[in-house]
Write a structure and sequence with these properties.
The chain is an all-alpha fold. The chain has 13 helices and no strands. The longest helix has 30 residues. The C terminus is likely disordered.
Length: about 300
């Protein structure tokens, strides 16, 4: 991996890993819905500028506005709102780790909704079971007065499930259109911001400026960097590394979220939560790469063989 690509890879993981902490800094001043409004607006601006500079947008794309709106609802508005709601109730490190379960829900949605296109491997099923056990260990439902809020866990899990469905929707309805990813994300963010503006109370949005740290974290950290620039960086990695290798950048944020929560928010995790985090991440990795690694170890070809040969 070339040095500048490695820097983008690591930087993206760090920015994504800081998002839970940035969210929590803004939540004392804004509701989760208001936080999402700011995040989407500040993420939309860099994407729009990049799309205009690269001439990625076209009036002909507007015939697919229904699909853009559906993606804005699934992959942006609902997902971000549920994530912010969960982050309000959970330590930022735990919230960041739980979001790593997204590939698990993507697999589940693909298996159910794309039966003729997605095969269910034994490794994926094993990974689902293992990851689920990890989530149970993190949530600790047997603790009536534990440190982990069950409602917060459910909010992030539901948001992750909705995002998983959005990936399947994009593959089925948007991938055949061959529209540039930058354009798709710009439409998605734009539609999301417009729809959010219709349901978000606007009179309290300026409350975040009461604290400079909160406004910087929300507007610059979570919005511009954690959403807009992060999208651009991710597309850059896909172009340079390929989709499979670029997707491994999603394994950096959980560790970063835990470190940031410990250092800056004074958060700590107990032994059971630590075990649950490790188990969940192992399950997700098994879902993503188990079959490919098994075939590689056995020396037999797999459907991922060609993809795994992508070079950075």
């Amino acid at each position: 991996m070339k040095s500048h690509i490695a820097l983008v890879f690591i930087g993206l993981g760090i920015v994504w890993g800081c998002n839970p902490y940035f969210t929590q800094l803004a939540l004392p001043y804004l509701s989760p819905l208001e936080v999402v409004w700011w995040r989407v607006l500040c993420g939309f601006i860099p994407l729009l500028l990049a799309a205009l500079l690269t001439r990625s947008l076209s009036w002909q794309h507007w015939r697919y506005s229904g699909h853009f709106f559906m993606m804005s609802l699934l992959a942006t508005s609902l997902y971000y709102w549920l994530y912010a709601h969960g982050a309000k109730l959970l330590p930022s490190g735990i919230a960041g780790v739980l979001s790593a379960a997204i590939p698990m829900f993507t697999f589940a949605a693909s298996a159910v909704l794309l039966r003729q296109q997605e095969s269910i491997t034994r490794f994926a099923l094993i990974g689902m079971v293992v990851a689920s056990l990890g989530i149970v260990c993190i949530a600790q439902p047997w603790q009536q007065h534990g440190a982990i809020n069950g409602t917060g866990v459910m909010a992030i899990m539901l948001g992750s499930a909705i995002l998983g469905v959005s990936f399947v929707y994009a593959r089925k309805f948007l991938a055949p259109l061959h529209i540039k990813p930058l354009a798709l994300s710009t439409y998605q963010m734009g539609f999301a911001w417009v729809s959010l503006s219709l349901v978000t109370p606007l009179q309290n949005l300026g409350a975040v400026f009461q604290a400079p740290s909160a406004s910087v974290a929300l507007i610059l950290g979570l919005g511009v960097m954690g959403t807009g620039v992060a999208y651009l960086a991710y597309y850059y990695l896909i172009e340079k590394m390929g989709a499979i290798l670029a997707s491994t950048s999603t394994y950096v944020p959980p560790a970063v979220a835990l470190i940031v929560g410990f250092v800056f928010a004074g958060e700590s995790i107990n032994a059971i939560e630590t075990v649950g985090i490790v188990i969940m991440l192992l399950g997700v990795i098994c879902i993503q790469f188990g079959a490919m690694w098994w075939h590689k170890w056995q020396g037999t070809p797999s459907k991922h063989a060609a993809i795994s040969k992508e070079k950075c």
